[in-house]
Specification:
single chain; 350 residues; alpha+beta; Arc Repressor Mutant, subunit A; Beta-Lactamase; Enolase-like, domain 1; five-stranded antiparallel beta sheet; three-stranded antiparallel beta sheet; 47% helix
Length: 350
């Protein structure tokens, strides 16, 4: 594979582009015409045979043309990734759609919607890691028995809910109010991680009736590993197109609907670099369906990060899809920064 000359690689690109565009095996005559190589169809057929020997394309039927393999797509993506450049017009259009969101939830939902419209694939947008979330307010609500609901509202409007289990300790409304006041006085404006540490220290100085509640809240405030981040989906109906068999659609749809699995797909995709493209058997669902994921991370400020991407068939326009994913990621970063600034108290602004 490493010894392929420039012409053979151009033939591979023509096969990939032709198959992505038309959805049918690509013959040597079409390649010779569209790639403008200045050689005969016979020469192109010889090059295609070499690419087939290298495992980059395959012939589904004896009399048919060729289609790319997973390895062929990978070689194409690695070679053409430089074309994945967002245009200023596309960037401006996406920013107009995202800027002005009232809170982080609406912004993330809009991001999934615009990404699915840009690519025509299912879009996944994972909420930022909570580690850097700055706390605006903590609300405590009695659920009955020994449970209290902690509602953590971030500066950008993000809301996280945690159920506190207090064993045999029953909390009355007066105790709840005292804990609520003390905690909010101490943690307002802090990151979630810092808030957890401050709350733990606060618990040591609390009276015996308040301490169990504050200790439970301190434990709940600690940022998680990301496994229970909220996931926003857009365009799942797009999964109905692009796959050849109903079983393939079902396998991919189940992966998207299972939030933990979908989040893991994004994490695994970005483990080797950002942005990222994972194709076919590079995905855990590759043996079931010919799927691919294109993903990118985004900076949510204050040390918090998130990720987004699209999931679709391996037969996708990778440079165009990668450009769309990067456009939405950078636009989301800008919109989050604006949202954060809008929620800052006037005294904290420069």
């Amino acid at each position: 594979m490493g010894e392929l000359d420039e012409r053979k690689l151009t033939v591979l690109e023509a096969v990939v582009r032709g198959y992505v565009r038309h959805g049918e095996p690509v013959g040597s005559k079409r390649v010779a015409e569209e790639a403008a190589l200045g050689v005969s169809s016979a020469t192109v057929r010889a090059d295609m045979s070499a690419l087939e020997d290298a495992g980059l394309i395959t012939q589904p039927h004896t009399s048919a043309g060729r289609v790319p393999t997973d390895a062929g797509y990978r070689r194409y993506v690695d070679r053409m990734v430089h074309l994945a450049t967002p245009t200023p017009q596309q960037q401006a259009a996406v920013e107009r759609h995202l800027l002005g969101s009232v809170d982080a939830e609406q912004l993330l939902r809009r991001s999934s919607q615009v990404l699915s419209r840009l690519t025509r694939f299912a879009a996944l947008v994972a909420a930022p890691s909570p580690a850097g979330t700055r706390v605006r307010h903590v609300e405590l609500v009695r659920l009955g028995g020994h449970q209290v609901l902690a509602i953590v509202i971030g500066q950008t409007g993000r809301v996280d809910k945690r159920t506190l289990e207090l064993d045999e300790h029953v909390v009355d409304e007066h105790t709840l109010q005292r804990a609520r006041w003390a905690v909010n006085e101490a943690v307002a404006g802090l990151s979630l991680r810092a808030a957890a540490e401050v709350t733990a220290g606060l618990a040591e100085g609390c009276s015996e009736d308040v301490r169990p509640l504050v200790e439970a809240l301190a434990a709940a405030l600690h940022p998680d590993d990301g496994s229970d981040r909220e996931l926003f989906l857009g365009g799942t109906a797009n999964l109905a197109t692009g796959f050849e068999q109903p079983g393939q659609v079902r396998a991919v749809y189940e992966a998207v609907e299972e939030q933990v699995v979908a989040l893991q797909l994004l994490r695994d995709a970005l483990a080797g670099g950002d942005p990222a493209v994972r194709i076919g058997r590079e995905l855990p669902i590759g043996d079931v369906a010919p799927a691919a994921i294109v993903a990118a991370g985004y900076d949510a400020g204050e040390g918090a990060t998130g990720s987004l991407g699209v999931l679709g068939p391996t037969r996708m326009d990778y440079p165009r899809t990668l450009a769309a994913v990067q456009t939405v990621a950078s636009s989301l970063e800008k919109a989050l920064a604006e949202l954060d600034a809008d929620h800052d108290p006037p005294s904290s602004r420069a």
